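Schema walk-through. Below, the input block comes first and the output block second. Nothing else is stored per chain. Lengths vary across the set, and this one has 281 residues.
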Amino acid sequence: MTATSSSLAALIQSAPDIADEYVLPPAGRRRWVGEMRTNLVPVGVAVACSVIVAAFVIAFNRPVVLTTSPSLTTSSSTIEPAILTSGDAIVSKKPDLAIVSAGVQSDGSSASAAQSDLAAKAGRLIARVKALGVPDADINTAGYWIGPIYSPQGQTITGYRATEQLVIKWHNVDSVGKALDAIVQEGGATNISVGFGLADPKPAEAEARSLAIADARSRAAAMASAAGVRLGQVIQVSDLSSSSRGPNPIEFAGAAAAAPTQVPVGQLQVQVSVEVDFAIG
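--- output ---
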């Protein structure tokens, strides 16, 4: 409560005290009533004036709040006219990398026996792969597993099986057939497959991306011509996808081959899709 409000409350509370001072004199009731009316009128006027003054003071002490119409402050968002289109491109490249998956397997009466025999087979396979000139950085373990072998009824353990799968990067794709023969016949691999890719796909992807943007521009130009407008500058470009599709992986059995293995390499397709926004000039 402000000082003015406190003064006003005190003044109002004092009004009954002022009236109590006028006690009925013994001389006559009419004279007392007249004197009381005469003296209470100025008191009432004073109280009313004080209330009015206090109201003005309180009103002027309030903070000023300015409001504006939402229609004056909110600007409507405008959509710039544009042509939205997409483009696709496929670039074909000869693979320069073969991914060879080669595995060995061992069975034993116990888990340790199967593991020990597997270690010997895996060592032989890795040694043969290295003898072909494959560096350690291009030989990786894709999986290693040891588990029980159950009877046909599935209730009795008849032995244990251990398997190890290696992934080998072979950079001379034209000679991958000879490498597979050596891995199977001399390395002892019992299951093997091969796929193809690019050692560095970025140059092919960049080429496909440029062609995809050109395809998007061609589509946008056709749309602008049909709409009777002029095609403007590029506003935004988004790379939607990039994928490579090579020949399907080839699987080979572990049996020795009488003739050299033939593995056609084929072509690898690199596909890129883009979305381009063009301004209308």
